[in-house]
Amino acid sequence: GENVEQHPSTLSVQEGDSAVIKCTYSDSASNYFPWYKQELGKRPQLIIDIRSNVGEKKDQRIAVTLNKTAKHFSLHITETQPEDSAVYFCAASMIGSWGKLQFGAGTQVVVTP
Amino acid sequence: SAVISQKPSRDICQRGTSLTIQCQVDSQVTMMFWYRQQPGQSLTLIATANQGSEATYESGFVIDKFPISRPNLTFSTLTVSNMSPEDSSIYLCSVEGLAGVYNEQFFGPGTRLTVL
């Protein structure tokens, strides 16, 4: 089955700096890659996603890139703010298995003022 | 956007008992799922709740332990049976197919279960 690895496990950044989280996946059949943000005690929130026919997608300060050849995708947060502090999860879904998301282990992001 | 609710939000249960968790969506969805998130851990898919048929379980999860119902397109239940302290976790439902948009999955607020 699919295996998703996520790095780093923790990331501390100064407010205003950029944060990058990287994930790799094992199954080349995966074609949908969402990112979730989970604040303490809250539900995971979908913040951005990318499909395998797209190399990059941006939404304001957030961007995701996908390298299908290398089987890795990354989340980029620019101009970080304290409210970006949370746990971020990447996930992957296989063709024909829509909804069966395999999650990475998560990255705790701490943005210090 | 749709509202996804879960009941109860939290519970403390005794070993050997069972708890049924409800998930309600305010609009019809194609897919409903149940996940477990153990403290400080990632999310693990338990099963896909199929409307009108038996749920599809992931490896390591069985129907006798986690019976699931989905009587219609807006509601599902997960029962955690014969509980042990190892079942202490957050249980989340998720849905896909809101407003006809596929692949995007949205989560309920979760049920925090503590088993003594």
Keywords:
heterodimer; A: 113 residues; mainly beta; 6-stranded mixed beta sheet; 5-stranded antiparallel beta sheet; globular; B: 116 residues; 7-stranded mixed beta sheet; 4-stranded antiparallel beta sheet
How would you summarize what this structure contains?
Chain A is built from no helices and 11 strands. Chain A has 113 residues and is mainly beta. In chain A, strands 2, 4, 5, 9, 10 and 11 form a 6-stranded mixed beta sheet that branches. A 5-stranded antiparallel beta sheet of chain A has the order 1-3-8-7-6, with no helix packed on it.
Describe this structure in words.
The complex is a heterodimer of chains A (113) and B (116). Chain A is built from no helices and 11 strands. In chain A, strand 7 (62-67) and strand 8 form a beta hairpin. In chain A, the strands form 2 sheets. In chain A, strands 2, 4, 5, 9, 10 and 11 form a 6-stranded mixed sheet that branches. A 5-stranded antiparallel sheet of chain A has the order 1-3-8-7-6, with no helix packed on it. In chain A, 0% of the residues lie in helices and 58% in strands. By secondary structure, chain B is mostly beta strands. The interface between A and B is medium-sized, with 22 and 22 residues.
